[in-house]
Specification:
- The chain is of the alpha+beta class.
- The protein contains one helix and twelve strands.
- The strands form three sheets. The protein has a five-stranded antiparallel beta sheet, covered by helices on one side. It has a four-stranded antiparallel beta sheet with strand order 10-9-11-12, with helices on one face. It has a three-stranded mixed beta sheet with strand order 2-1-7, with no helix packed on it.
Length: 209
């Protein structure tokens, strides 16, 4: 009985095998690249969400710690406890962080402004006599299409500016501040922050839990 002769791959078979391997490798590379792009997109979205939450959280804290204390700049110009318009506000606040237990007051003057599609925060270490060069400025959020603020008065009316025109109590805080931030990726985000009155009791706007 004759043994079958051993033979190797023909050139055509080698070419076919190489072609199949190339197709499989290309498909695997495309899948890995797609997964990498998806993961990168998810990471970018998570980073963006954290930045958004951090910015809004900082703005809400500044308002929740508002105090009915006017400020005076280095030129002696008096500013109400809270001064605001549709796209910016300044406020005196307490609760300033002091992790090193330094000998300083726990109050400060802060300002928020929407400008050039950015949310910016500035802080001065003193309520009175603070100089321009003492300001701490930070860019809190980018790619912001709009910031709209409104302020609730004692009668529950929403106003576009604070203090109200001809108000006999320019240092009185509004009952609440409504924040509307519009971003291209998350649309319009709404917050209502109840402020504290002179007795230290939080005033909740109607319709909020």
């Amino acid at each position: 009985m004759k043994h079958l002769a051993r033979r190797g791959f023909t050139l055509v078979e080698l070419l076919v095998a190489l072609a199949v391997f190339a197709i499989i490798a290309a498909a695997a590379y495309a899948s890995i690249a797609q997964l990498t792009r998806v993961q990168s997109t998810l990471d970018d979205k998570q980073t963006r969400l954290r930045e958004l939450q951090t910015a809004l959280g900082a703005m809400e804290r500044d308002l929740r710690y508002a105090i009915s204390r006017k400020s005076r700049d280095s030129q002696g110009v008096i500013d109400p406890a809270l001064s605001g318009r549709r796209d910016a506000f300044r406020v005196s606040r307490s609760g300033r962080a002091n992790p090193l237990d330094l000998a300083r007051a726990n109050v400060e003057r802060v300002a928020w402004q929407w400008r050039d599609r950015r949310l910016e925060r500035r802080a001065w270490p003193n309520l009175d006599g603070a100089r321009f060069d003492q300001v701490e400025a930070a860019e809190m959020l980018t790619e912001v299409d709009r910031l709209e603020l409104s302020f609730m008065d004692a009668e529950g009316r929403w106003l576009d500016a604070w203090p109200a025109n001809n108000s006999p109590f320019p240092d009185r805080l509004p009952r609440a501040v409504r924040i509307q931030v519009t971003c291209p990726d998350y649309g319009q985000i709404n917050r209502i922050v109840a402020l504290t009155d002179f007795s230290g009791t939080a005033l909740r706007p109607e319709g909020t839990p």
